[in-house]
Write a structure and sequence with these properties.
single chain, 464 residues, Rossmann fold, twelve-stranded mixed β-sheet, two-stranded antiparallel ribbon, 33% helix, 19% strand
Amino acid sequence: MEKWLLKLPLFLLLLLQQAASHSTVESLPGLNGPLPFYLETGYVGVGKDEEVQLFYYFLLSESDPTTDPLLIWLSGGPGCSSVIAMVHEIGPLRFVEQVYNGSLPKFVLNPHAWTKIASVIFLDQPVNTGFSYATNDPAHKYTDVQACEYVYEFLRKWLSDHPQFISNPFYVSGNSYSGITIPIITQLISNGNGAGQEPLVNLQGYLIGNPSTFRPQESNYHIPFAHGMGLIPDELYKSLEKNCEGEYTDIDPNNTGCANDVRTFKQIVSNINVEHVLEPFCVSDDDLQRPHQLSGERRLLDDKLISLQRGDKCASDWRKHMRYWANDPEVQEALHVRKGIIGSWIKCRKSIYRSSQNYTMTVNNAVAYHANLSTKGYRSLIYSGDHDYMVPFQSTEVWIKSLNYSIIEDWRPWNVNDQVAGYMRSYSNKMTYATVKGSGHTACSDKPEECFAMFKRWINHDPL
């Protein structure tokens, strides 16, 4: 940044930065040569006086962007940056699997990127997620519904600035905690269209992976899931069933038998990777010191120590690569990130929802939104990695069944390369439910080829 800019008051500096709202990214550190796909990044101001600045990554479909669907992708958390989906789930990039050695992590291309057939906006939301920020302290305080309203405002402003995509079929997409917010956002878009708010969004439906939907009751399905996976013995499971009668989250303090059983259960599964029960349990980047606090040598030692403690099972964990890559000054410059705004980049900023001063969760059950959207005829794809402990497939199947729609296509396997990739069922409300065999909480990370086939078939209105 030029020295004279540093002398300007903050509000003037922000105004100057906001003037150029988006830029094309020609190349990215970690990938040799020019990008083989179109990438645009930028900020869109929303809220009162645009005090909330939401950062996004836009990737153009590599097929026919004039007619291909347009998706907005929202990672969970709340507070997880959607760039993790761009470089580790449905986007065109994947980190090279190798032990971090102090140099900038490298990328390889993902041949199963959803951007092969769809344009995708990866949005950092809510406030203080990824590179998104607020220009004043009061703007950091909001509810989940307000955060959804910001997303809808973002979308309308983005489409106004990109009118060539207004007619493209539009879908709201994401995973995890976004299972709460995506139905709300879809409802807001639908309501806005009904009220004639310009620009009208060509809303066709939504898709969500391993969606949190009715908290905290869905945690009751951790125990049946763990039993089905062979993590706890029959004797403990039967005792839990008898003593707790299916309620494992809101335990009667006088029910000592249930409390003791639940305590034993939690001890047994305490070192299980809750995102994928078959994968090693690795330390989250959010549990480590921030990279800006460590020298390169100290960071490398830190990772080596963790790898030794975990028996090298986590030595090439992609989250470490993500953390160092996103905090590199050259990377942020290439992405056109505004300087001096956020401090360190964090994959999932847990302080957003752990502090009652910031994000307030007012919606704990999104089933009513699904029911309402079903009456309006929107399509939906709900998919579950079947080895996910965080949001077990059993809990998802329960709320889908509670909608009471008739089954159009009953439970059957769906295949990729003549192998079973999962199981599916479709309903009369245009909802398709699918499991992704052998995958965890972020199914597209674990089974990219299978998830791309699932998405391609569904988005093209073909049977899974």
